[in-house]
Design a protein that fits this description.
The complex is a heterodimer of chains A (120) and B (157). By secondary structure, chain A is an all-alpha fold. Chain A contains five helices and no strands. In chain A, α4 packs across α5. Chain B is mostly helical. Chain B has eight helices and no strands. The chains are: A mainly alpha (120), B mainly alpha (157). Chains A and B meet through α2, α3 and α5 of A and α3, α7 and α8 of B.
Chain lengths: 120, 157
């Protein structure tokens, strides 16, 4: 696998991980941690939390594959693409409303990522 | 820093006085300022990423292992990679400590500083040639993260 493929997949999986975790710990999914530490174990019953773990693990591994070859000043700011992916995923999976102002900010971040992508 | 604190106080309004009151009840020695915790978290996260890269680059020039598992272990056991992962973990703990004392919406844009720090580190440690175009891209990403924060504050108000 090329370093660039590893970087792209790492960014996508990293964003998925965040949204999956949010889905897993949200009250709607019926596995919210209470004040007692023992109740955190109930989180392990949520498939979303497991999905987070797998995505997080793979994203970290692929990130290491990517940065072993790619310049840091290129690979790291590319992670900004995660803002766009997380927003899109949160609309579908979490039914979140993303305001116009927030979309505007996300467009600016994505534009910055595009400029960095072009700077390779 | 004074200006930052003032802006935050205006943004969160009444919540600040409550928070300050709670903090004053703690013994002096246990009080780690949120600002130090946040700065420390950001510095440690950036250092962690750079150390991991340092170790990986060293491993690439070392022995080549045929098996995938051996190769992964060889990478993870590089002193710089292991140290980088630990430092990154410590940074996360400091971040949690900062977030527990200040609004996440106030602190989160500070993480955009990581983009600048890691890039500067790439230039200094690995001799990366950062073009003006790339710096502009990084600046636009940081500005976008700041805008994102602004949109959250205004939606709450």
């Amino acid at each position: 696998m090329s370093s660039m493929t590893a970087l792209w997949i790492s960014i996508v999986l990293g964003s998925c991980a965040q949204v999956f975790l949010k889905k897993g710990v949200s009250p709607q999914s019926g596995s919210t941690p209470g004040s007692a530490p023992a109740s955190y174990l109930t989180l392990l019953r949520s498939p979303w939390v497991w999905a987070w773990g797998v995505c997080f693990f793979l994203a970290t591994g692929l990130w290491m594959v990517a940065i072993s070859k790619i310049e840091m000043s290129y690979a790291f700011p590319m992670l900004g693409l995660g803002y766009l992916l997380a927003a899109v995923l949160s609309i579908f999976l979490l039914k979140e409303h993303v305001s116009f102002r927030r979309w505007a900010a996300i467009v600016v971040i994505t534009l910055g990522v595009a400029i960095i992508y072009g700077s390779a | 820093m004074g200006g930052l604190i003032k802006t935050e106080a205006m943004a969160t309004g009444g919540a600040v006085s409550l928070e300050t009151a709670a903090q004053e009840q703690r013994p002096e020695a246990l009080r780690l300022s949120w600002a130090w915790a946040a700065c420390g978290a950001i510095l440690l996260a950036s250092c962690g990423h750079l150390l991991i890269k340092l170790g990986l680059v060293a491993a690439l020039h070392g022995t080549a292992y045929p098996g995938l598992l051996e190769r992964i272990l060889h990478y993870l056991l590089q002193p710089a990679v292991a140290a980088g992962l630990v430092i990154y973990g410590l940074g996360t703990l400091l971040w949690i400590s900062a977030v527990s004392r200040r609004n996440i919406s106030f602190l989160y844009p500070l993480t955009a500083l990581n983009y600048v720090l890691v890039s500067v580190g790439g230039k200094v440690l690995f001799g990366e040639n950062i073009s003006t175009g790339r710096w502009i891209g990084i600046a636009v990403v940081v500005a976008g993260v700041a805008l994102l924060q602004l949109s959250v504050t205004e939606e709450k108000a």
